[in-house]
Amino acid sequence: MKDVAARAGVGLKTVSRVVNGEPGVTPDTERRVQEAIEFLGFRRNDSARVLRKGRTASVGLVLEDLADPFYGPLSRAVEEVARAHGALLINGSSAEDPDREQELALALCARRVDGLIVIPAGYDHRYLEPEIRAGVATVFVDRPAGRIDADTVLSDNFGGAREGVAHLIAHGHRRIGFVGDHPRIHTAVERLRGYRAALEDAGLDVDERWVALGSTSPDRVRSAVETMLDAPEPVTAVFAGNNRVTVTAVRVLAERDRRTALVGFDDIELADLLGITVIAQDSAALGRTAAERLFRRLDGVNEEPESVTLKTTLIPRGSGELPPAANI
Amino acid sequence: MKDVAARAGVGLKTVSRVVNGEPGVTPDTERRVQEAIEFLGFRRNDSARVLRKGRTASVGLVLEDLADPFYGPLSRAVEEVARAHGALLINGSSAEDPDREQELALALCARRVDGLIVIPAGYDHRYLEPEIRAGVATVFVDRPAGRIDADTVLSDNFGGAREGVAHLIAHGHRRIGFVGDHPRIHTAVERLRGYRAALEDAGLDVDERWVALGSTSPDRVRSAVETMLDAPEPVTAVFAGNNRVTVTAVRVLAERDRRTALVGFDDIELADLLGITVIAQDSAALGRTAAERLFRRLDGVNEEPESVTLKTTLIPRGSGELPPAANI
DNA sequence: TTGAAAGCGCTAACAT
DNA sequence: ATGTTAGCGCTTTCAA
What keyword terms does UniProt attach to this protein (chains A, B) (predicted)? Predict the structure, then answer.
């Protein structure tokens, strides 16, 4: 910038004005400055600008895994909102590791992102308190914040699961398996709660052998489902706790002769062709809502932290409408 | 940092040393500094650090759409490599718009990212020349750079498509449709080239009514496929030019009584269950390779720009092995 | 081992 | 309309 000023024979501030399109420069001077910029291939160094202005026009998003089809649309939605506000988005994947989540979130804070959207991997976010106090707007998505009070955007995991399981019950099922994510994950617990509530609503008992929480790795899900199917009194329907469970469950059920009903939480591509009934959540809406809330905060709105819950949608496609198979 | 120094009763530089784990500080002093840091909730401002050091420890990734399942794993792979090098990743989606690609790439350069990975939307990347000259390492992925010489990592689009079409020919097909992306997109053109080459290898002529390039929107793909199926001499097989085309093609074909063979470029989740034969490319490997190349450059390796091509894999699952249906 | 001073490139505030 | 000065928070250099 100094060089540009020298070459154009003007002061530093004049160049700054031109670069930022500020008023108070004669067209002639502006032209000279533009020429110098062109000639020197100058481009403003935003690092310096940030240092001076205190705002980075960037927001951070800490999620679990960008490669998961659930998070792609979410991230993209956040990006669109950020873009509308002239901000860039820095993503990071925690890989479901609380330490890595913290490391990432703090690294983003050290970069002085203006705001932070976090899909928690951990259960204690007090480490963010100093940052929030220092002015980093923070919104939690998909899972609630741990031990601090903050804006949160969730899906109705409880209600969605309850509706899905009720749907199976309405189609005559009495022995329904639940295969879900690890119990340390909030959504898994909520969905299990919904499962239990639906059974209870119908006056049915839960046999704990029908419930399997744990890793969503194909191996674990496969063995969980197979155990339920091979029991003396096999389940006649399975409720899959998330997209990865559904994918494996569909594979396992497809191998069997006996038709077992299935409802999965989260929609999946091609689920329509496979006739998989799902409880869909709108991950893009989750991201958009969170980002809008974040920027509202950045624009100075100062309300109490608030929790928003987005509705889920039951999409019947066949697998959830199968009647119980005559067993054994 | 000033405040920390004051509170600990030491010089600014000593605090800097402690924060960065540099040697030359007595344990006692270090302890006092640490206490002050703790007390004040100090965290280093990386913006200032960046300004001074000239390196941001961040890389930019400009892709088409983070919500596309093809790019999620690619982005994640880049992130992992970046993480291993202590760098953060800033993603941006160009939405297949050349202007937006440029705007994004230049915004990232203004932030002084150390390196840039670009999945081109445009065909002229000379706008990046000053940046590259100024030291921003740049690697192009998935599609080649336009009008500049730069590192590039591609999939073998030509070879993959040729293999897929040859596979259909080997199963007896003579009238094979090609539905692909817009002809301004490099991969679409390459794959079409592969299609033509396979037909030519077999001594078959191409009827241009079997070729449909254009938008990958469901509507356009649907009508393209339906036209081919409803022609007086309908195609007996369809080669789908990418994941989105495949998804719609599968839907359209599933509505028909006559079984039409299908091979798709790109693997899709649940394609195994639907028995869809595909030419799979490894999007994570694409991202990893590009990122490794980028960091090699950042580590000072100074070779000529190089183009790497990654092999694709034919995965037979049924749809590509159907014989031609007796038509009409 | 420790610290003072200079400066990275920019913008805010205040001249002129 | 234009320029000058100070300073954002850190690291580098060099001296103590």
Answer: DNA-binding, Transcription, Transcription regulation
